[in-house]
Target: Delta-6 desaturase-like protein
Amino acid sequence: MPLRQSDRQGGAGTNLKLTAYKKFPTNYPHRNTDLWLSGKRIDDNIGPYWRIHNKLYDLTDFADRHPGGKMWIEVTKGTDITEAFESAHISGNAEKLLKKFFVKDISTPRNSPYTFHEDGFYKTFKRKVQPILKEIGTGPPWKSLLIQDGLTLAFVGLTIASSVLSSFTLAAFAGAILSLVISCAHNFFHQRDNWRMHYFDLSFATAYDWRVTHALSHHLYTNTANDIEISIFVPLWEYLPKPDKTLLQRYGTIIYEFALLPLGPPFHHHMQNIYAAYVKGRAPPPGEFAQYSVLFVMAIFSQSFWLALRLFVALHVTAHLVFSFIGLTAAHHHPDIFHDGDKMRDDPDWGLCQLDAVRDRTEVTGNLLMVLTTFGDHTLHHLLPTVDHSKLSSLYPVFLETCKEFNVPFSFMSWQTLFTGRYLQMANITPNPNHPGYKAKVS
Model:
């Protein structure tokens, strides 16, 4: 299949020529979940249905019965959900069930550039993991639950202690632990509806928002113009190799980002939702104001509400700094990693393209606590997002076997390499003329 190139220069104020998409997605750069979803409905152009490969389905009556939760079905109405369907369902049971909701075939080419051929990398890998996951399961074991709940109890204890002792130091420690709590909750909001995913609501974002921005956008269209985690902070953070970046965009983040990270992704989502609720009249997503329960508890134990508010701010400033640092250096940004505008591989198998857009860190793999709290085993997590992180280590042998079968060398990067590579990528104005692939040498 020939490489997809942009059919026009320009778009969204840049002369970058896209390589994953034919043109910049509608509403780019995406500022919130509503803009991304509405833009995707326009670009996918399938009316009131759900598209999977070249077939349309009407899943309206299935939403309440969907084992993963009705939210996934409701928010994706009118969109192509091929990538979401393939990555969320490992066995063939869901495909058999789809037949009940079939509407018609569709011949219009998909807007997405990715393929899922039966003999391709991703479908082959899925077939190989099926018997393993049938034996060990896909859900969280007691270790994952203990880590998530233990971190949450530690957060509650430190929060109360900081209030009783009027300690900003303890509030900062509570914020650092909160960042680990919400990072760990990321494991749970990828799975079927469960109450632990709402630990994420203790930040200034919600599991609902992040199921859209992270699970449905970033995970499925990683490092492309349709990845909201690429576009949401444009122009302050510019990861695509645009040739017209300003000097401030290329090098300014080294200076200003630590002043802005406290107002990072969680707080940004919160302010967008408040604006939508009180200016546009849209109901806020579930859990939008859960974080203020923490302020309420701190006010009970503090000497005054004013002191509680200051401790609360200190807590969340620390939480956002730590969470943003972990998230932004976890796996995706380095000049050797694919970003839209770089050459895309000739075989656009979704799994292979995920390998091009992700790197794993040598320091994290093998330690479940680190994997859960710092987005570890990230390549396997992107390939199988609904599988609990604790099960991913068992899949490395068959994953490496599949990589060998398709002649795809797999390597890790160090955290330091990804940290510095992130700044190199923001400074980068030259698209990579060679698709990144995977180098055999470990960085």
